[in-house]
Amino acid sequence: MSTQFARVEGLRELDTALAALPGAVGRKVVQRALRRAARPVADEAKARVRRQTTPTRRGGVRIGSRTANKWGFDKSLAQSIAVRTDMKAAQSPSETFIAIGPARSHFYGAFVERGTAARPGRPAQGRSTYLGRTESGEIRIGFTRSRKGRRGHAATRSYPFMRPAWEMHQGRIVDVTRLELWSEIERFANRVARRQMRWTQAEVGP
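^ thats the sequence. predicted structure below, dont judge the formating
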């Protein structure tokens, strides 16, 4: 799945209001606003993703096995789609990134989105060695494997779910982000005002 970006620029009033907030508070305000703005994309992707009627394996791992439980394959691909804060993508403290899509454990979502090409199988290769005979006269032959075999598979068609969801909602993300940011700033200002009022009443006393 390719990475898509929505850049929010030219919001001078918002920039001024955010700059007046403490650094950590400003980042949390932006993160919450972006997560709310991106939620429709995640919901649309969940509705579009292809579902198996009776799945027995996910990502090549049998459902219910210890490996499946360890890596989170007990959840379906649709259940793993979420909006997450991507701290590693930010190159400076002033940048905020969010990621929309399946969890990393559900890497095979990229194969569902794009499809796969056919891959021929490959037998294991190695060398046979004569090991002698047993007491009963049977010939003993050893096999030293030099290359692991590989199962082939046919080509699979693509079932896009992330790109259509993004294309459907990308035009609204900037507007929703702007509204959510103002709403978050107003809520923070109201909390500060109520806190200052309580402090003032406490200092004045009954």
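The CA atoms of residues 130 and 136 lie 16 Å apart.
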